[in-house]
Amino acid sequence: MTSFAECGLVVGHATDVDGATGCTVIRGERGPFRCGVAAVGRATGTRELALLEPGQLVNRVDAIFLAGGSAYGLDAAAGVMKWMEERARGFDVGAGVVPIVPAAVLFDLLPLGRFDARPTPQMAYDACDRATADVVEGAVGAGTGAMVGKLAGPAHAMKGGIGCGEASAGALHVRALAAVNALGDVRDAEGGIVAGARGDDGRWLDSASVIARGGGEASRFDTLAGRSTTLCVVATNAALDQAALGALARAASAALYRRITPVATPFDGDVVFATAPMTGGVDASAAQVEALAVRALEMAIERGVRVSVPGDILNR
Question: Which of 50, 147, 251, 313 has the fewest CB atoms within 10 Å of its CB?
């Protein structure tokens, strides 16, 4: 089990098994943290990402919220804000606080659960309340209704979910979390497919190759629009400012290109968040932190399918 304690973060999930949806909250154990972001996909559903750009008035966040439910899931972030406000955690505006909660969502409205099942503010509140440093993986939280290898439709796809990874060098630590819900196939470190689209004979279709040659399965693209997305968080205990964290998020996205094929398609809303402590932190070069982040996130993506429910789809 991966622990985010070294990076000052705790993680909580809320899961709707019957509806096949859920949400995941990543928050500071004791207070706010710095955050950068890279929006990699072209079908993103997000909130509060603009304030993560360098030069904005607010240079800290209180939590990151990942959810299913597509754009409907963004409303559930209100539950995180309520939890934070009750504890006076947020950006001080004099009369009170405004919690800063960037959020990103993935599409899980079909086919595993009910279309009307979406994460709620109460689920987000509960996820925030039960957050711990040791992260539960699998078909939980934002990964509850996740699937991968969607090129040939749900009957030929496989289960995705939440996976974690870690990489360290002495006192420098990087931890990663991925909610893997990709159109493409997931590969191991040697390049072999470990989860993805399969033909009627059970063999891998190799989605990237099918798309490249314009195979018949590619005609399904019109029905896949906006129905994927891999959401990632890489956390470090290095002393990085917001500009460096934006660069770290972009660099870490290399893990998506190595482990998911294809990735960042017009049908994926892939987003990578990167975090660091508000104060203190370990001195390290940006290049070293980025190298560790790619390694940790690659591991998280692969585990997102290896530790989730096996088979084509959840039995319902």
Answer: 50
Considering only CA atoms, which of 9, 111, 126 is closest in space to residue 67?
Answer: 126
Other CB atoms within a 10 A radius of the CB of residue 316 amount to 8
Q: How far is 149 from 228, CA to CA, in rounded Å?
A: 10
Question: Residues 216-227: pLDDT tens digits?
Answer: 555 555 555 458
Q: Which CATH architecture has domain 5-306?
A: 4-Layer Sandwich (3.60)
Task: Compute the Cα dihedral for 241, 181, 166, 90 and give only its sign.
Answer: positive
pLDDT digits (tens, 9 = 90+) for 51-74: 999 889 999 999 999 999 999 999
Task: Name, in order, each residue with C-beta under 8 angstroms of 299's C-beta and a sequence gap of 6 or more.
Answer: 163, 164, 165, 166, 167, 176
Q: Which strands form 46-47's sheet, in the order they lie side by side?
A: 9-16, 21-28, 63-67, 103-105, 46-47
Pairing mode of beta strands 231-236, 271-277: parallel
Q: Where are the domains of the chain?
A: 5-306
Cβ partners under 8 Å of residue 233, min gap 6: 26, 64, 66, 176, 177, 178, 272, 273, 274, 275
Q: Which amino acid does the sequence have at 313?
A: I
Decide if 247 contacts 290 (C-beta within 8 A).
yes
Provide the whole-model pTM. 0.95
